[in-house]
Amino acid sequence: MDFNDTPEEAEFRTEVRAFLQQHGDKYRTRDSFSRKNAKEWQAIKADAGYAAITWPTRLGGRGGTEIQQVIYDEEERHYELVYNVFRVGLGMCMPTLFAYATEEQLERYVEPALRGEELWCQLFSEPAAGSDLAGIRTKAEQDGDEWVINGQKIWTSFADTADFGILLARSDFDAPKHKGLTFFFLDMKSPGIECRPIKQITGDSHFCEVFFDDVRIPDNQRLGKIGGGWKVALTTLMNERMAVGHAGGPDFEEIFALAQSLEIDGQPAFKNGAVREKLVDWFITCQGVKYTNFRLITALSQGQQPGPEASIMKLVGAEKQQEIASYGMDLIGMGGNVMDKELSPMAAAFQDSFLFAPVSQVAGGTNEIMRNIIAERVLGLPADIRIDKDVPFRDLPTGPGK
Amino acid sequence: MNFDISEDAKAVANTARDFLREHSPMTAIRRVFDEEIQYDAELWKSMAELGWLGAGIPEKFGGFELGGEVLCVLAEEIGRVLAPVPFSTSVSLATSAICAHGSDAQKCDLLPKMAAGEIIGTFALAEGVGDPSPARIEAVVENGRLNGNKYPVADGSVADFVVIVAHDSAGDIGLYFCDLSASGITSTPIESVDPSRNTVSLSFENVEVEPLGDAWQGWQSVQNILDQAAVILAFEQTGGAQACLEMARDYAIERYAFGRPIGSFQAVKHKLANVYIATELARSNAYYGAWALGENSAELAQAAATAHLSACNAFQLAARENIQTHGGMGITWEADCHMYFRRAKSLGLEIGGSLFWQERLMSQLEQQATG
Ligand SMILES: Cc1cc2nc3c(=O)[nH]c(=O)nc-3n(C[C@H](O)[C@H](O)[C@H](O)COP(=O)(O)OP(=O)(O)OC[C@H]3O[C@@H](n4cnc5c(N)ncnc54)[C@H](O)[C@@H]3O)c2cc1C
Questions:
Q1: How far, in Å, CA of B344 to CA of B236, rounded?
Q2: How far apart are CA A323 and CA A357, in angstroms?
Q3: Ligand 1 — pocket residues by CB below 6 A?
Q4: Would you say the pTM of this structure is higher than 0.90?
Q5: Do A260 and B369 touch (CB under 8 A)?
Q6: The listed CATH number (2.40.110.10, 1.10.240.10, 1.10.275.10, 3.40.1550.10) that belongs to domain B122-211
Q7: What residues in B contact A289, CB-CB < 8 Å?
Q8: Shortest CA distance to B216 belongs to which of B338, B94, B102?
């Protein structure tokens, strides 16, 4: 066992450090959703060959290894260079295109996405279908060489500024739900598309409602077979698990620092028995997550593919983020209500994280769905009894909602 | 980075798993429960022949010097099947104590016999209620004679000798070697939560003992023995947790209620997902403990406490949920669930309870924070 890089890994890390030292500071941001400078930074990254380390060179990638990607991410984190706007496009949309698009299409779309010149979004979730994605009802009707789309998507991150999107729609309402879906990509500037940003829990608006009113898509932008959309969507979702990163927000180090800086009954807060018990619990969990990650990295560097086991990281990370943020505010006491960055300890990091934490429990697969995945795919427990499998989609029960 | 158990250790683990599956069925531990035997002497002999008992002993003292990782993975396999042998006491505690602190003469005398499985040792720290602390030790050695009471002492009735924590007339804590056939010792079996390990109370009246080496540094040495044992124990506990998870999973697939396998109910699924998560986190923390043990790292104290606490969580949760998943069957003497349930708690107390290890961990973190 060792924590050292191999000589090749060390060499790569040195290169990455030199690159980041040269450019990193200028693009540093504390707001991972920032779009300012994002495109400029992405182009620099792409030119240096760090924008898509594991993609084959044929597609503009570096042709590198998973472990190189891990090394790059580790180093980049020191510079706070996480720009979430590209995650969807590079992490989910492009891998889907790789599997299903034509060579000409790859030629046309991949490079601009890689360089941050064109932004992509993922039009999957709908008001009546999130976890149960196959329940979507946005309609796709074939009309000669084109498809006509009508319906509504929701929670679509960055839809309002995206140039293109991948879209899952229903082409057959008489087939069972998983069999009537067809998958497309489309120009977000097509006539008939309307994006309305939704104000989120934090007050920011990173996702939108998207309405489709007779939007036309050429048939050559269909990915996969007619009625074969679910299979394509699974390719996207498998990549989503990899693209959803760290939960973020204060972790053990920050809550421990906070407990050192505050007092309870004239003593540093961490001397308090109840606080100590919490700290110990989080330390153990944080260490467990850290070393589970090291085990995954080791498996990657030995050329193995990450399996559904990786769901642990998202689930545990999200729950820990929520608990730590909330407890940090309790430690701050009555002043915990203050969100003013000047007045609140650690620039209101705990308050920010408190409001953002619910996002982590839902986005990219809810905690419940993650537990289902672990139970069914890792432990091999039987799937839930399904009442929606072999019935025509239009006969399925729906809630009284929209 | 290579954060994985070495190929050599994995090979030992695979052999051990196959061997134990065949030679340590649950019927063996039942014989201990039913007081037919006190431990599985035959299995212990085979373990010696396979070189497991000497895995942590240097070659010059008759061992195989296979390294800490091998000890760890062996403990994991033993934990998985609850093998009724005095591994955690004789190997993790007594052997480690002698290797670390014994004089050359003591090592030459004891270690080859321990590697060969000819003698068994145990470790006597506890004196009834309370966690490890020098203030709790009343046993005293004066002029080479020990007086005091020690209980509970696990595997006490099968051990040939015991390493004892006592203080001297000046009040300094020390480690002493005591042959259990010496006169003045009364050994009384006591009932314990986990009857698969014979447990005794030892009382000493003017018993001749000898200091274990002369280089120990009071309580620090005791704590160091506990740290090392905590890492190995964490593997044993992780093995137990994994076994409970697999038992519960298998039962959840095969048992039907309401016309469907109980494993298709989400309440059951999510519980078992939680057990899986706790077990994987424990395994990862145990690996880090193994690294710190192998490197004799300055982080050993922290890594050991983390590994042990994480493993306590996992094993106790897994054992509890395993019973729950089995329903009424889980409450019976006949089902194996309770044996894991008992073992999970007893390993969580053997070298100090959770409060002790939490404090140990916090104090390490405090030291780091304040430099
Ligand atoms: C910040 C953010 C960004 C997002 N970005 C995008 C995006 O870019 N593109 C996109 O398509 N979507 C996006 N989403 C949507 C996201 O994928 C869904 O919100 C998520 O999958 C949950 O779906 P839902 O909101 O419909 O909730 P529901 O599926 O209705 O879930 C409601 C509750 O029911 C529970 N539940 C549902 N099914 C089960 C089950 N089988 N077992 C147990 N419990 C269950 C859920 O766990 C949850 O607690 C985003 C969401 C967020 C929060």
A1: 10
A2: 9
A3: A 88, 121-122, 124-125, 130-132, 155-157, 207, 359, 362-363, 366, 368-369, 372; B 266
A4: yes
A5: yes
A6: 2.40.110.10
A7: 281, 284
A8: B102
Report, as residue numbers or ranges, the catalytic residues of A: 240
At a CB cut-off of 8 Å and minimum separation 6, what does A221 contact? A105, A184, A185, A186
Render pLDDT for A277-336 as a digit per residue (tens, 0 to 9).
999 999 999 999 999 988 988 887 787 777 777 788 889 999 999 999 999 999 999 999
A402 pLDDT band (50/70/90 cuts)? very low
CATH number at residue A313: 1.20.140.10
Residue A30: per-residue pLDDT = 72
* Four-residue CA torsion sign, A366, A372, A375, A376: negative
**pLDDT, mean of residues B42-63:** 96
Mean pLDDT over all residues of chain A? Answer: 92
Distance B36 CA to ligand 1 centre (A): 57
One domain for residues A256 and A373: yes
Instruction: Give the count of domains, chain A.
Output: 3
CA angle A81, A87, A93 (to 5 degrees): 155
Q: Do B253 and A294 touch (CB under 8 A)?
A: no
Cα separations in angstroms, A58 against A65, A69, A270 = 15, 18, 54
**Whose CA is closest to A372, among B171, B274, B361?**
B274
Looking at the complex, report in whole angstroms how far the Cα of residue A2 sits from the nearest Cα belonging to chain B. 5
DSSP for residue A129 = B
Q: Cα separation of B53 and B349, whole Å?
A: 23
In this structure, are A234 and A260 located in the same domain?
Answer: no
Report the distance separating Cα A202 and Cα A199, nearest Å.
8
pLDDT of B256 over the 60 cut: yes
Can you tell me the mean pLDDT for A183-191?
Answer: 98
pLDDT at B179 over 90: yes
> Is the predicted ipTM greater than 0.85, yes or no?
yes
Q: What is the pLDDT of residue A75?
A: 93
Scanning every residue of chain A, which has its alpha carbon at the shortest distance from the alpha carbon of B310?
Answer: A284
pLDDT tens across A244-290, in order?
A: 555 678 999 999 999 999 999 999 999 999 999 999 999 999 999 99
Q: Which of B215, B226, B197 is nearest to B92 (CA)?
A: B226
The topology under which CATH files domain B219-370 is Butyryl-CoA Dehydrogenase, subunit A; domain 3 (1.20.140)
Burial of A129 (0-12, 13-18, 19+ CB in 10 A): buried
- Quick one: CA dihedral B197, B201, B207, B211, positive or negative? positive
Phi, psi of B123 (to 5 degrees): -130, 125
Chain B residues whose C-beta is within 8 A of a chain A C-beta are 1-6, 69, 245, 249, 252-253, 260-261, 263-264, 266, 268-270, 272-274, 276-277, 280-282, 284-285, 287-288, 290-291, 294, 306, 309-310, 313, 358-359, 361-362, 365-366, 369
**Alpha carbon separation from B70 to A25, B200, B229, B319 (Å, rounded):** 46, 30, 14, 25
Whether A336 and A266 map to the same domain: the answer is yes
Domain extent, residue A361, equals: 252-378
> Rounded to the nearest 10 degrees, how much is the dihedral formed by the CA atoms of B15, B20, B22, B23?
130
Whether A282 has its CB under 8 Å from any CB of chain B: the answer is: no
Give me the amino acid identity at A100.
Answer: Y
Domain match, A73 and A179 both: no
The CATH number of B7-119 is 1.10.540.10
Q: Does A204 touch chain B (CB under 8 A)?
A: no
Question: Residue B120's pLDDT is what?
Answer: 98
Task: Give whole-number Cα distances, B86 to A83, A202, B56, B93, B231, in Å.
Answer: 56, 57, 15, 10, 17
Q: Report which secondary-structure segment, H or E, holds B237.
A: helix B218-254
The stretch A150-175 carries a mean pLDDT of: 97
- What's the pLDDT at B237? 98
